[in-house]
């Protein structure tokens, strides 16, 4: 399996898909499904600011791809009735790029800075001052004769998004008044999202089919919406257009997305770990070779979800399959498997506590 097709359950989206997603984005906070705590906190921040007639605190959103950061940024602007300016970290290569954006903001405007962790370092300093004092220092001239001219800018609200909050320098993180941590969604929340999307797409989605798709969507709305489109295609071509449970199951098995949302690569990794290495422990590169992939592919593409789902544990001695992995793959663990009766007493193979 040299080339693996990752598009069906990848949390990332290409440009075409992003265009499709626009139509499915909820526009108001009340239509945003799930993330209850974030929604409630944010609603207070926004209402409080509106009451005082001031721009709200800067908001940082952190969370994996496809969990709704861009959606929420747009909702913030809509709820405030404020204009929205969109830019991204990679677009800000020099501090001048940022100065150009900041100095042309209107009062109360929402500036969405996506992938904020990828912004150029020199621009960060400028952003600190802008966030705190609504001022930019424009440098005029070069060398020893250069001077900084302070320029007042309109009060604005920065909405930053990052998939890697850990990469943000502390001074930047500290300047956000509110941080929204976006979590993976529960299956019942994904079901709601799917029903809402089906309505917008005029697709006739049965409740049990919605539950089936939700369960395979890896806690991610983007994946849920994508699987919905695949099932709809299948229903249109092979069925009578109705998205029933049977149609959903057939479509998803055709795309090799199993009941837990594992795809072909995930299952190949598990299969090798269980059958060839008796559940481990086994080193990453050995495991990768046995499925014909680069170690990095296994580590970056397959492993995070397998670990998050509790099928694989990373231990100091290598990767180990959990009892859930044996059960999910329909195999029986040998008595000496790492998680069988003879599990090491030192607990070295205990499953990781968190994701
Ligand atoms: N809470 C939600 N309710 C309904 N739909 C959602 C929700 N969150 C995300 N979606 C849908 O999932 C898709 C992806 O969401 P979005 O683009 O906001 O993710 P993102 O976090 O910005 O991803 P990335 O990190 O790749 O930019 C969109 O089509 C959006 O409509
Ligand atoms: Mg986004």
From TrEMBL:
Q: Which GO terms describe its molecular function?
A: DNA helicase activity; hydrolase activity
Where along this sequence does the record place binding of ATP? Answer: 24-25, 66, 69-71, 132-134, 175, 185, 222
Statement: the UniProt record of this protein carries the keyword NADP: no
Q: Enumerate the residues binding DNA.
A: 314, 319
Domain (AAA+ ATPase): residue spans on this chain: 55-188
Q: Which reaction does it catalyse?
A: ATP + H2O = ADP + phosphate + H(+)
Indicate the enzyme's highest-level EC class: hydrolase
Spell out the residue ranges making up region: Head domain (RuvB-H).
259-355
The residues listed in the UniProt record as binding Mg(2+), with positions renumbered to this chain, are 70
The entry's localization annotation reads: Cytoplasm
Q: Region Small ATPAse domain (RuvB-S): start and end of each range? A: 186-256
Q: What is its EC number?
A: 3.6.4.-
Report quaternary structure and partners: Homohexamer. Forms an RuvA(8)-RuvB(12)-Holliday junction (HJ) complex. HJ DNA is sandwiched between 2 RuvA tetramers; dsDNA enters through RuvA and exits via RuvB. An RuvB hexamer assembles on each DNA strand where it exits the tetramer. Each RuvB hexamer is contacted by two RuvA subunits (via domain III) on 2 adjacent RuvB subunits; this complex drives branch migration. In the full resolvosome a probable DNA-RuvA(4)-RuvB(12)-RuvC(2) complex forms which resolves the HJ.
Instruction: Please give the record's comment on domains.
Output: Has 3 domains, the large (RuvB-L) and small ATPase (RuvB-S) domains and the C-terminal head (RuvB-H) domain. The head domain binds DNA, while the ATPase domains jointly bind ATP, ADP or are empty depending on the state of the subunit in the translocation cycle. During a single DNA translocation step the structure of each domain remains the same, but their relative positions change.
Q: What is this protein called?
A: Holliday junction branch migration complex subunit RuvB
Gene that this sequence comes from: ruvB
